[in-house]
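User: Please fill in residues for this 417-position structure.
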């Protein structure tokens, strides 16, 4: 049994993992034949592979904790056609189970021979090696066509407290709950207020979980539109209650909604509608200061409801000296998480119920983006969602090659003048 490098890097594949992939694909074809189904299409097999990788990646893939699989792309020869798959989990659980078992066997083979787990790139290379010119044996594809390459597009996880597989699970649960609530709303003849509230909450926490997972901005924009739609539906019920700013959970939710609208440059008519729905102008100095950055309504309260939490951030807005402003914001971030003890999500990362969606201060990202603040002093703070401002997110906390590069970049920043 031989092993060999697949390119100029240290990535290696071998006869044993290749044989395991071959046997697994043959098993899947037999399973489908028993079910009176044709062989899987390219998209269907990509869905199976991606689903299996998501299930086991953090356990048996060497770089599995750093990335969340977004999709797989297969290049078909000789036509050079690209086929995309794996964005949605496969519904064929028997095939996913078979492939997941194969991945565990391959992990043991790598451990026995190389004393380490396989990498994503190596698993994909094994699959391509098997399919190659034999694609027609395992897939519904004409004999003259074959899979020449498969690329894995992965989200680079942003949140530090959980691994990529955790956020894949959270996103899957959120989407399932959203589908459930949407179906109940469509079928219910009773009051739907509670369902609209649940739908809004699930969409909002899905948005944050997607950001934590590393999803791209376009997907975040689509989810935020769903958040607004759910909020508007709730607003239109006869029992809608405006946000209670004296409940910290509701206050921060309102702040986040406005911040996301500003960050994503949502149309002004929706921003005005959102502010109208929140219906809390003139009650809190920080909320009013945030809203006034993009609103023609300049109603501003002098009263700060949560001075211990937001006083430093509010004070920074009136400081002209950049060093003092950055210091004030740094003070805010230093006390941010401790100041959120009353909210329902505080310490949720310590629980095992998939309620944790990420700890982020979106209001700061909105201020930095709109006011074009110099953020170098706090650029690597783990609560600051920096890449929403158009700057690079510095993962200085990450124990990886990327983390090493980000630490060097952060340390290279000169002191603020």
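Assistant: Residues filled in for all 417 positions:
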């Amino acid at each position: 049994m031989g092993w060999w490098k697949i390119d100029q890097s240290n990535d290696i594949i071998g006869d044993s993992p290749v044989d395991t992939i071959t046997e697994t694909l043959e098993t899947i074809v037999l399973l489908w034949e028993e079910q009176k189904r044709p062989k899987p299409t390219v998209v269907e097999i990509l869905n199976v592979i991606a689903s299996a990788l998501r299930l086991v990646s953090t356990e048996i893939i060497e770089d599995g904790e750093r990335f969340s699989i977004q999709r797989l792309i297969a290049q078909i020869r000789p036509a050079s056609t690209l086929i995309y798959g794996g964005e949605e989990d496969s519904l064929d659980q028997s095939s996913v189970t078979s492939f997941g078992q194969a991945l565990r066997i391959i992990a043991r083979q790598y451990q026995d021979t190389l004393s380490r787990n396989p990498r994503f790139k190596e698993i994909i290379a094994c699959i391509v090696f098997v399919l190659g010119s034999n694609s027609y044996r395992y897939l519904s594809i004409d004999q003259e066509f074959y899979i020449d390459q498969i690329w894995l597009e992965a989200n680079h996880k942003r949140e530090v407290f959980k691994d990529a597989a955790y956020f894949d699970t959270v996103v899957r649960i959120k989407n399932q709950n959203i589908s459930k609530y949407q179906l109940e709303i469509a079928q219910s003849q009773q009051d739907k207020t509670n369902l609209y509230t649940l739908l809004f909450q699930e969409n909002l926490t899905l948005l944050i979980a997607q950001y934590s997972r590393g999803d791209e901005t376009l997907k975040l924009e689509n989810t935020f539109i769903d958040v607004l739609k759910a909020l508007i539906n709730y607003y239109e019920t006869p029992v809608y209650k405006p946000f209670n700013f004296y409940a910290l959970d509701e206050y921060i939710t309102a702040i986040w909604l406005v911040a996301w609208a500003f960050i994503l440059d949502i149309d002004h008519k929706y921003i005005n509608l959102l502010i109208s729905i929140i219906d809390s102008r003139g009650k809190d100095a920080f909320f009013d200061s945030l809203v006034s950055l993009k609103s023609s309504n300049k109603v501003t309260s002098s009263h700060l409801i949560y001075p211990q939490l937001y006083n430093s951030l509010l004070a920074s807005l009136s400081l002209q000296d950049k060093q003092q402003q950055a210091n004030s914001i740094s003070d805010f971030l230093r006390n941010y998480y401790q100041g959120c003890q009353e909210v329902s999500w505080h310490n949720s990362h310590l629980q095992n119920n998939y309620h944790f969606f990420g700890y982020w201060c979106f209001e700061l990202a909105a201020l930095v983006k709109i006011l074009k603040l110099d953020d170098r002093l706090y650029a690597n703070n783990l609560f600051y969602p920096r890449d929403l401002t158009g700057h690079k997110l510095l993962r200085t906390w990450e124990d990886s090659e990327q983390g090493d590069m980000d630490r060097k970049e952060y340390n290279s920043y000169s002191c603020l003048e």
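For context: The longest strand covers residues 67-77.
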